[in-house]
TrEMBL record:
Belongs to the enoyl-CoA hydratase/isomerase family. Transmembrane segments: none annotated. Coiled coil: none annotated. It comes from the Bacteria. This is Crotonase/enoyl-CoA hydratase family protein. Pfam families: ECH_1 (PF00378). InterPro entries: ClpP/crotonase-like_dom_sf, Ech1-like, Enoyl-CoA_hyd/isom_CS, Enoyl-CoA_hydra/iso, Enoyl-CoA_hydra_C.
Length: 282
């Protein structure tokens, strides 16, 4: 399938989603918000890959939301203007919820999602990468919660997630000042896993990490993701109970034995892929 904002490549159990509008700094236009969750859902629901990598093209990972693509032409009709003012709050809420759901799809899918960041990761880009499982960057990369600089409060996912990834005070500084945080500093505070000299080196290493993940038992990996997401949002007691219930219902001896045998024989494991998600009836 062809998309206006992305290229999608799937090979060796790795799905590579590439932002493909470098001439527009990979800004997030209307179609972006529909295409991303559609791509992720297709990969996840149909078990097309065991890990997802999101990278970009051009000098910047993304310049964030393209506000101009959401501006509607004003009508000269007073009644239409009045109706638009009344609907404004509801329309804005629905739009933001749709955007939030787009990035939540990365967090909710069963497989790990890795972000590979070069250049600027601005505004909505921070919302995107904080919804991913892991983040890698080039030396020239930077992040900025840019919404503050244009009189807005970031609303698509940065704040619920970034404060779970880095110290609260650091997150607040970034939010209140809108300043750029360079990749090396982002690594120091734990937001970035590793920093590389350039995009070629970054992608080589990111794909190596993705390959390592893809070589593991898919059920074990999705269990890890689910447990860590759950534990982030619940008490230790609740999380311990949940992992016990998860393993009691999902643990597969055959996969454990195969993993142990493959390790002993120093060969790739022959694991069963996750099942496709069953479609609801009705």
């Amino acid at each position: 399938m062809t998309y206006s904002c992305f290229d999608v490549q799937i090979d060796n159990n790795i799905a590579h989603i590439i932002l493909n509008r470098p001439e527009k700094r990979n800004s997030m236009i209307r179609s972006f918000w529909d295409e991303l969750p559609e791509i992720v859902k297709d990969i996840d629901d149909n078990a097309k890959a065991r890990v997802i990598v999101i990278s970009s093209t051009g000098p910047h990972f993304t310049s964030g939301l393209d506000v101009s693509s959401f501006v509607k032409a004003e009508s000269d009709d007073p009644e239409e203007q009045r109706a638009a003012r009344i609907r404004a709050g509801s329309d804005f809420y629905a739009t933001v919820k749709n955007m939030q759901d787009s990035f939540t799809s990365l967090e909710a899918c069963r497989v790990p999602v890795i972000a590979a960041i070069q250049g600027g990761c601005i505004g909505g880009g921070v919302d995107l990468i904080t919804a991913c499982d892991m983040r890698y960057a080039t030396e020239d990369a930077f992040i900025t919660i840019f919404e503050t600089n244009i009189g807005m409060t970031a609303d698509v996912g940065t704040f619920p997630r970034i404060t779970k990834l880095i110290a609260d005070g650091v997150a607040r500084e970034l939010a209140y000042t809108g300043r750029r945080m360079l990749a090396v500093e982002a690594k120091d505070v734990g937001l970035i896993n590793n920093v590389y000299a350039d995009q070629e080196e970054m992608m080589k290493n990111v794909m190596a990490v993705a390959s390592e993940i893809a070589s593991k038992a898919p059920l074990a990996i999705t269990g890890c993701k689910r447990m860590m997401n759950y534990s982030r949002d619940h008490t230790v007691a609740d999380s311990l109970d949940y992992i016990a219930i998860w393993n009691a219902s999902m643990l597969q001896r055959e996969e454990i034995f195969e993993a142990m045998k493959a390790n002993a024989e120093k060969r790739p494991g022959d694991f069963v892929d996750l099942p496709a998600v069953k479609k609801s009836i009705g």
